[in-house]
Amino acid sequence: MEIRPILASLRRHRIPATLIVLEIALACAVLCNAVFMIGQRIADIRWPNAIDEQGISVVTVNGTDPRLAASDIPRDLAALRGIAGVTAAAAATSMPLDQNPALSDFTTAPDGKTTVNTSIYFLGSGGEQALGLRLLAGRFFNADEYADSGTRDFNSTGHVVLITQSDARRLWPGQSALGRNLYTNDRSWTVVGVVADVLAQDPRFSGPGGRHSSVFFPLHPDAVMGDYVLRSAPRDRARVLREATQALGKLEPGAVVQGVTYAGMRGDYFANTRSMAWMLVLVCVVMLAVTAFGIVGLTSFWVGQRRRQIGIRRAVGATRGHIMQYFQTENFLLGTAGVVLGMVLAFGINLYLMQRYEIARMPWYYLPASAVALWMLGPALRAAAVPPVVATRSV
Amino acid sequence: MFSYYLDLALRSLKRNKALTALMVLAIAVGIGASMTTLTVMHLLSGDPMPGRSATLFYPQVDPTDDSRPDSQPRDVMDYRSAMDLWGAHRADRQALIASAELKLRAPGVNLPPQMARVLTTTSDFFPMFAVPLRYGSAWTPADDAQRSRVAVISSDLNNRLFGGANSVGRTLRLKDADVRIVGVLASWRPSPQFYDVAGGRFSDGKTSSFYAKPEDVFMPFTSAQDVAGNDFGVFTCWGDPQAMKHLQTAPCVWVALWVQLNDAAKVAAYRRFVADYAVQQKALGRFVHADNTRMMDLMQWLDFNHVVPSDVRLQVALAFAFLLICLCNTVGLLLAKFLRRSGEIGVRRALGASRGAVFAQCLVEAGMIGLLGGFGGWLLTLLGLWLVRRQPVEYADLAHLDGGMFLATFVLAVLASLLAGLVPALRASRVTPGLQLKTL
Prior knowledge:
heterodimer, A: alpha+beta, 16% strand, elongated, disordered C terminus, B: alpha+beta, 6-stranded mixed barrel, two-stranded antiparallel sheet
């Protein structure tokens, strides 16, 4: 196929050619970045969290008399465990993603420094089972450790701690974390177990370093524990939550009792992220549609304008195939020019966003992927090219 | 002549309905997206206290003991500094701000107890921020001094608890204390909730919580010390955790101070006053950093905290990129439309129409498309704002189109279409009449 006559023809029709290239380039640039941002948000929504998310319900009790906590909490738990379908129940200070961060910094030496925010969880007896923590090494807390441990100024007075796998790898790379000491200020605790990664109370606030940095301390019944964690089969969850809320409402008449499924809590945390992702999807779809329509409109006019040329070429012996080929090559050239320009633009925008909004670098494979997506507009170009070819039969 | 062009434009638009619809749609979609995001941006970045914001100031000091030399003053103050500065009464008006979440019940109302956000402040808060009251009145400076157990409640809470009736004189039970309602607010929805803004620079652009509704209960800061105890929201603490038993003496910052200063001389004097205070506290051994004080006005403080969420700014950028694509489209389609009529233009030129006249005629047609697109864009903006109102964000209820933005929709649409029509109109006016006439 001879390319020179095509280039010559494009030079004669500079404005429509430039417009098509520009439209494809702009669409490509915006599409790349929008899809990238959608991908980032989906990755956020899918942050792993090694607790039994589908089986857990959380009932939060606020405004009880702190002096009665030691007797009320065991009584409440006994009532909760009596609900049919509850496989485990425990009290806790907070839950992953409950947006109530209790953070501190933990180090491997007494005077160490770190920039990682670690989320602190205190669990009442049976908390590991109620949350469904996955033990990877060591052991869970024993009854003595639960009985001996209190809090002072939101620091554990016990001597043991469970840490996550991410922290174990970060703090003691290449070594076993079991039996090591974890320090904050002048206190220390011995690591007795390592569990699979549990999310922070507010991972966005804690930052990427603190996302899966969580520590668990045992705690005897204490007023700082405002959450009751219930575990059941997912199909019992709604009923268990309803009955538990009612039971606690009766047991603690003066308190504010609020129940939520863990799935609901996770949904709340990411509601904003999800709606932004859907908005970006909407933008992509409408943008592709607008671009496609625009290109169809422009090319149909443009091809129509060249009807006379096509007639002449047909008259001097060009087959219909030749003319189809001519237009397809032209489409390919314009499309490629648009995509190449679009990729440069997309990277430019990404670099700008990286500086302004601390967005990550776009992986290289987004570019060819979006180029392929834009080739879906190819049929649109071709559709516009066919009718005049048919029309030439009458010339 | 203009009305003749309008007539021509209308005829031309009617002739090829599909192409016209496509252009109007492209402009409408682009304008709809841009105006939706612009309206949200406009609502979130506005001045929450128009006319007053230049007289409202936010003094800051640094009570911490860390040795970092480049550190900023703390976002809020410790109890002692806040009380000292407030108690000096050097400003025209001054209000302390701290918030707590407390259990709330209304005796005699058959509703379960709930957790309520309580803003504890001082009596100047209401006149200083022009807070409107429906029933009763705010508390007085005497109430601040006597630690009176009084409260002002929001109209929302008044509706929920008392069905909107005048509840002045009734009692609320907050945590374990009874407080008497002295006032009920009329609806009040500052955007953002500026008096609570702090720490925005740490939140990585996720600042939509600054646009939450005002608190449900307002009570004197002084009496709240007895009622709320240690239940206040604390910004940050440092140093020895042993000392945190009592918030008032703890090494923690949790109280904000707003002052009203009506002229430049007073502003300068107050700046000096805060700086002198820090020097004096350093001499007393309470402060380590005497030179780390600052006082921004309201808008500077909002700017410093990047109150507009980064998602909103991103959406505006995205919408304008989208508008650009739509305009590119319109340029192409207008070009197609005008050049298709080359013959007609040739005849008009041959009959004596100047290039300028053809150019003007084409622009009138483009403007007409813009006007139609603006109408479609207005409808799409309403749809877009309806969608925003259904989003799970704090500012959702604020998203409404005001008169200014309504006009801006049409101005932007017509401007955009005229811009898009520029190149096609220029091309059309350059049509050589001779060549076109030959082909007729």
